[in-house]
Amino acid sequence: MSAMSQANYSNQIRLAVVTETWPPEVNGVANTIQHLVNGLLRLGRYYIELVRPKQSASDQPLLQEDFEEYLTNAITLPFYKEVKAGSPHFFGLRKRWKQQRPDIIQIVTEGPLGYSAMRAAKSLGIPVFSDFHTNFDQYSQHYHLTYGWRLVNRYLRHLHNSTLCTLVPTTELAQQLQRSGYKNLEILERGINAGLFHPHKRSQQLRHSLGIMDGQLMVTLVSRMAHEKNLDLAFAAYREIQQQVPNARFVLIGDGPDRARLQAQHPDCLFVGMQTGEALAQHYASGDLFLYPSTSETFGNVIIEAMASGLPVVTYDYAAAHKYIQSGKNGITVELHNEGAFIDAAVSLATQSQQRHAMGIKARATTQQLSWDNVVLHLDHITQQLLAKVHHEETAPA
Which residues form the Glycosyltransferase subfamily 4-like N-terminal domain (predicted)? Predict the structure, then answer.
């Protein structure tokens, strides 16, 4: 690390974080950015301004010694009414940042608020970096916007290439984006709360409350219930499992626009809704086999949460699974979009309790290397390097 970077540690860094999702909203992006913000605050050298949309009419901004919120209006996506984005806020942010200038700005999400924040930062000469969290081109194809996905990809590439660097969670994704023309990519991995997600959270009481008896196979899935999550494949795999293990039960944790349809089509399956904290950890650990058929992840936090909970995971070989699952040892991955292989792998593990148990132990061991504290320190290092680079360019002789 450079001398300039080290010197900056003695000064408080004013970081503006722009995100269109934040807890209590439940999704991987909100979970990730909350861990990063809280971790940076614990370092004691950051003042964070969180820019986000209002989540309700009564939503009020939080103000603390080293943290403040700036709330903007929200808009609803026309093809996904359950998801809200921030409305464009170029002039408001420009005025605010002109009066109280951040040292650096992080654009977490690429919606209208994120784009206008990028433009406001550039107009004021404030350094800005970005995160790549969501495969919007995949979403556009799932929501019958096939002809628009090239425009979406062009928009995303323009936004991210307008920043100093873009943070991505895996080398695989970085290589994919580089092939699409993205520049200045940095790897920032994900962490796991291995104390919360733990095999010891397994609860026979919870299983019994769901009508699942000792020794009965509990197949689980944690997901937002939306079309892009490819959940019909999970049900197809479960129906094949039933042919071999007739008393198996399928427990689905989560909510979303597709829940009503799925619940109507599969009334014998257990839909327990959104779970958080200890309740979520217990639902993970109380299962025996985790199915995750999504094809639209940039990472897939639920995969490492399931692994930390001691569950063998059946999923596609990309994103978090590609990085952390050694197929046949601590879970099973199959070629992306190979639905037959996904179903076969699910049935195979469902019928082999000893193999499931052995894989679950190894899956838990794999996640022991993951730590949010290490991820936060890496983000701090990246931020320091960007500030040092900007300072060097500003002070270098013409």
Answer: 26-193
pTM of the full predicted structure? 0.89
- The predicted-structure confidence for 245-281, as pLDDT tens digits, reads as follows 999 999 999 999 999 999 999 999 999 999 999 999 9
Phi, psi of 212 (to 5 degrees): -105, 120
Q: Which residues contact 368 (CB under 8 A, 6 or more apart)?
A: 194
Q: Which of 201, 335, 346, 208 is nearest to 279 (CA)?
A: 201
Amino acid at 339: E
Beta bridge partners of 52: 71
Q: Write the pLDDT tens digit of every residue in 75-129.
A: 876 655 556 789 999 999 999 999 999 999 999 999 999 999 999 999 999 999 9
DSSP string, 156-220: HHHHHHTSS-EEES-HHHHHHHHHTT--SEEE------TTTS-GGG--HHHHHHTT--TT--EEE
pLDDT band at 369; cut points 50, 70, 90? confident
